[in-house]
Amino acid sequence: MWRYIFQRLLLLIPTLLGILAITFAIIQFVPGGPVEQMVQQLSGGTPGAETAVQGGGMGQGRARISAEDLAALNTLYGFDKPPLERFTDMVARFARFDLGESFFHHQTVFELVKQKMPVSMSLGLWTFFLTYLICIPLGIMKAVRDGSRFDAATGMVILVGYTIPPFVLGLVLLVLFGGGSFFSWFPQGGLVSDDWQAMSWPMRIKDYLWHMVLPVTASVAGNLAVMTVLTKNVFLEEIRRQYVYTARAKGLPERQILLKHVFRNAMIPLITGFPAAFIGAFFTGSILIETLFSLDGLGLLSYEAVMKRDYPVVMGTLYVFTLMGLLAKLLSDISYSWVDPRIHFGGQK
């Protein structure tokens, strides 16, 4: 086991480097970088407008930026160095967990992630826990009552929830219950109210939960179908195994068979995905949901970084998310052997 873990950790290095290298190479060819955007601002232009540079044309616009100013901007943003040297410097900094500084926020990427993470964590963790709390019992009930009216009715509801995109469902919830054309039961956006600091702690908790109802509902609805169907299929497969028929032939109560035998074996594929889903919940950032409900989280930060060509934020967040994702995948693989002793790694017998 320890040999397998060590090999997987070593494999993380080339995988991480490959992802960073591909992304770094792609963004070199994306037009409208930070230098071009700063030139447009200095020249009073608008995004997409062309600007001429004295001593070397950058376009045919009216305003002109001197070659010295352009060189200073390239030096400021680090573009005066060759791409390979910039990539090597970035990897060396990332190895020390120095994620660099944002071009536009004038903060370190680490500080930005730390500021935005609580919002995405709130959305991600509530979505994660509610998904498991609803889907596992519902999937078990559907498996036990397979083919019944309950199974058909819940299947239809789940299918409808799955086919509606979370953004559309969130928009419908806002119109119906967020002060749109019908009811004003829930706030339209934000994580807490403006006067949250002046509230007592019980009121703070109530206000926070009240703000999370609509975005969490929109996020959970799309996840219900996959987890519920997976739970149902796994339990159905176990219920139809020979040891269940043998237990019934021995006269064991159906409840004891379900809880003591079927439940333990059927939970293996569900539990093994728990570490990756739990860690991923800390970094869940739904761009559409955060934008719709005015939640300033990691999803919105990543979207703005891509649009503004804020390369340190793009690469820094990519490095953190990819590293955590690879570690979560390793934990999921290891959990197989913890939950099921029959599974071994590294050629163990």
How would you concisely characterize the structure shown here?
With 349 residues, the chain is mostly helical. The chain is 69% helix and 2% strand.
How would you portray this structure in words?
This protein has 349 residues and is mainly α. Helix content is 69%, strand content 2%. It has 15 helices and two strands. Helix 6 (149-163) crosses helix 8 and helix 12 runs antiparallel to helix 15 (311-339). The protein is globular. The N and C termini lie close together (11 Å).
Provide the fold topology.
Blueprint: H1 2-27, H2 34-42, E1 52-54, E2 64-66, H3 67-76, H4 83-95, H5 109-144, H6 149-163, H7 166-177, H8 201-239, H9 242-249, H10 254-266, H11 268-272, H12 274-282, H13 287-292, H14 298-308, H15 311-339
Helix pairs in contact: 1-15, 5-8, 5-12, 6-8, 7-8, 8-10, 12-15, 14-15
Membrane topology: Multi-pass membrane protein
Protein name: ABC transporter permease subunit
Main location: membrane
Structural class: mainly alpha
Quick one: overall form? globular
Number of domain units: 2
**Looking at CATH, which topology of the largest domain would you report?**
MetI-like fold
Indicate the radius of gyration in whole angstroms.
Answer: 26 Å
Number of strands: 2
Distance between the termini: 11 Å
Across the major sheet, the strand order is 1-2
Unreliable stretches: 46-62
Strand content: under 5%
Write the CATH architecture name of the largest domain: Orthogonal Bundle
Give the CATH superfamily of the largest domain. Answer: MetI-like
Largest sheet: 2 strands, parallel
Provide the helix percentage: 55-70%
| Helix and strand pattern | HHEEHHHHHHHHHHHHH
The average pLDDT value, as a whole number, equals 79
CATH structural class of the largest domain: Mainly Alpha
Number of alpha- plus pi-helical segments: 15
InterPro entries: MetI-like, MetI-like_sf
Keywords: Cell membrane, Membrane, Transmembrane, Transmembrane helix, Transport
Pfam families: BPD_transp_1 (PF00528)
Transmembrane segments: 123-144, 156-186, 208-231, 270-293, 313-332
